[in-house]
Amino acid sequence: MDVSLQFLGAAHCVTGSKYLLTLDDQATRHQVLVDCGLFQGLKELRLRNREPLPLTAAAVELVILTHAHIDHSGYLPKLVRDGFRGRILCTEATADLLSIMLLDSAKLQEEEAAFANKKGYSKHHPAEPLYTQIDVEHMLPLVESVAYDAPVTLLNGLLTLTFRDAGHILGSAIVELAVQGAQQRKQLVFSGDLGRYDNPVLFDPTPIAQADVLLVESTYGDRDARVEDPEAELAGVVNEALDRGGVLVIAAFAVGRTQTLLYYLKKLLAEGRVPQVPVYVDSPMGIRVSDLYPRHPTAHRLGHGNMFDFPGMRFVTEAQESKGLNAKTGPAIIISSSGMCTGGRIVHHLFNRLPRPQDTLLLVGYQAEGTRGRRLQNGETTVKMFGELVPVRCQVRHLDGFSAHADRSELLRWLGQFQAPPKHTFIVHGEPAPAEALAQTLRQEQGWLNVVVPDYLEVKMLFESI
Ligand SMILES: [Zn+2]
Ligand SMILES: [Zn+2]
Fold first, then answer.
1. How large is the average pLDDT for residues 246-252?
2. Cα–Cα distance between 47 and 340 in angstroms, integer?
3. What spacing in Å lies between the alpha carbon of 220 and ligand 2's midpoint?
4. Which residues of 439-449 are buried (b: 16+ CB within 10 A; e: fewer)?
5. CB 214 within 8 A of CB 194
6. Residue pair 189/163 in contact by the 8 Å Cβ criterion
7. Is 129 strand, coil or helix?
8. From CA 365, how far away is CA 198, in angstroms rounded?
9. Is 313 exposed, middle or buried (0-12, 13-18, 19+ CB in 10 A)?
10. How far is the CA of 183 from the centre of ligand 1 (A)?
11. Please, are residues 179 and 25 in contact by the beta-carbon 8 Å criterion?
């Protein structure tokens, strides 16, 4: 059997994760996709979502997902729209997250297309969503969930899949694939996105000891993002904001970040390190995702029960109540999304709060170039919202210690657990500089010989006649 791999995304960039694994027996060819993500961010990357994939969707037998983030799962409904009818395998929590996140993604696609058509951006070519909520409904029945650490035999024994906890978001996994040739068995490991060590909510990334082929992410391949004490930093910002007598608005991703913040706020309140003020979670997706944690007690460290509830905390579900928060002037905390201030309910809070000197905006985590969050982080004094120039007179703070990605030292710690260098190592899911930096470190400091940063659409023959 011949085994090859094609890099259909996350090559020299962090989005669009898709790896096409082809097992060629003389008689038959099997095609498997590991991850099926959307390209996001810069326009030149997003346009790739509209280009046809170099495959026949109906011929792909399996899709294996590392986790539910849109840059790893968001192309699935399009693949189904194009004819894919195979099995989609992921962990139990990922399956639950998928329906929430992909329906939201489809709704966003539909709204963007409708907006473009209304504005007449593309008069001659009406804008079309990449997929719709109906495509997602067609896709969801194909999803099968698999427990962590439980090997599953696929393709009549040619492939064995095992998910290992990656500690990145709820349900995230490292994918181990054992390929059974006529004479040899080979082990392929896809790191997916790796989480951090000693996170209070999620487990450490599972150590992996052996691989013939390794794909490892490199988001922070060139820098350490460890903050001494994220809890104390958060307490500092909260106290400073509340001392001003105003409202603290926290922009946080709905998946993962919102729950980590709630965990810390609950702890800080219980320990009396921040004052008792009303806390509003104004993020419909954040609320639905928080509800998933008790349903998956083995996928995180918090166990059973209402882990995010505390006195004074309120989940805001109704749009009316969300708008009502605009009238609040006294000390309060509002957690809302999107995390980079590009859409969602956070936008009306910003419109309302940015001009108020007594209020504070806290940005949590990475703010991508071109986003409103990045402009605010950079200290711009006006931002455009709802067609108006809004003056920024509130305090703007930024905390970086809550990243969901392993930093450079943590990547090396995880990589250091391999007993021997893999035969092939591919550095993926990183901008060119961090990917190359990690490759150099592995070559020079660890003595790993075959380390490659693959190109977009590159095909690699991994094994011949095994
Ligand atoms: Zn991710
Ligand atoms: Zn990712």
1. 97
2. 21
3. 12
4. bebbeeeeebe
5. no
6. no
7. coil
8. 18
9. middle
10. 36
11. no
Contacts of 309 (CB under 8 A, 6+ apart): 266
Burial class (CB in 10 A: 0-12, 13-18, 19+), 391: exposed
Residues, CB within 5 angstroms of ligand 1 (ion): 69, 193
Q: What percent of the chain has pLDDT over 70?
A: 99
Q: Which of 137, 9, 24 is nearest to 66 (CA)?
A: 9
Ligand closest in space to the Cα of 68 = 1
First to last CA, the chain: 5
Cα 296 to averaged position of ligand 2 atoms, centre (Å): 22
Distance from C-alpha of 153 to C-alpha of 52, rounded to nearest angstrom:
30
69 CA distance to ligand 1 centroid (A)? 5
| Structural domains in the chain plus CATH codes | 2-223+404-463 (3.60.15.10), 230-402 (3.40.50.10890)
Which among 260, 216, 240 has a CA at the least distance from the CA of 397? 240
Residue 124 is predicted with a pLDDT of 60
- Choose between 402 and 269: higher pLDDT: 269
Q: Give me the residue label for tokens 């030149």.
A: 44
Going from the Cα of 257 to the center of ligand 2, the distance in angstroms, rounded, reads 15
Q: Name the pairing type of β-strands 60-64 and 87-91.
A: parallel
Q: Is 110 exposed, middle or buried (0-12, 13-18, 19+ CB in 10 A)?
A: middle
Q: Say how many Å lie between the CA of residue 37 and the centre of ligand 1.
A: 10
Residues 6+ apart with CB under 8 A from 141: none
CA distance 93 to 262: 19
Q: Is the pLDDT of residue 123 over 70?
A: no
Average pLDDT score over the chain: 94
Report the range out of 42-46, 233-237, 306-310 with the highest average pLDDT: 233-237
Q: How many CA atoms lie within 13 A of 26 on its CB side?
A: 3
Q: Tell me how far apart the alpha carbons of residues 435 and 454 are, in angstroms, rounded to a whole number.
A: 10
